[in-house]
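User: quick one - fold this with zinc ion bound?
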Amino acid sequence: MTDCLFCKIVAGDIPADKLYEDDEIIAFWDISPQAPKHFLVIPKKHIDGPSAITAEDDALMGRIMRVGSDLAEANEIGDNFRVVFNNGAVAGQTVFHIHMHILGGRPMNWPPG
Ligand code: 5GP
Ligand code: ZN
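Assistant: Sure. Structure tokens for the protein plus zinc ion:
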């Protein structure tokens, strides 16, 4: 998608501090971290958000979850991290290319804000 910030990161048109990349997925540190460790795991394929996931994305979304957990472990937050998908502007989504937040390195509160 031409006017999507995260598609531009996937394409290399906008730089990002990457932790991981394979043929389907990239992970990069969030530009505005909300915890000592805060990174995003995204598919290279453009999907608007969680509501737009279809059955053909099942394996891809499963890989995103597993890769994110492995990266949390590799970055020393494997025992304590928060996973967030915001869906829709009212829920806090600001970039409409699906992304899994992983946050850790501090205690987390519940309920989330
Ligand atoms: P959302 O609010 O849509 O769930 O999350 C979007 C996230 O993307 C935010 O945490 C925001 O800080 C991050 N973000 C926005 N623009 C950029 C960028 O250009 N580079 C990086 N690394 N993160 C970004
Ligand atoms: Zn996109």
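One thing worth noting: The pocket of guanosine-5'-monophosphate (ligand 1) is lined by residues 5, 14, 16, 28, 30-32, 86, 92-95 (CB under 6 Å).
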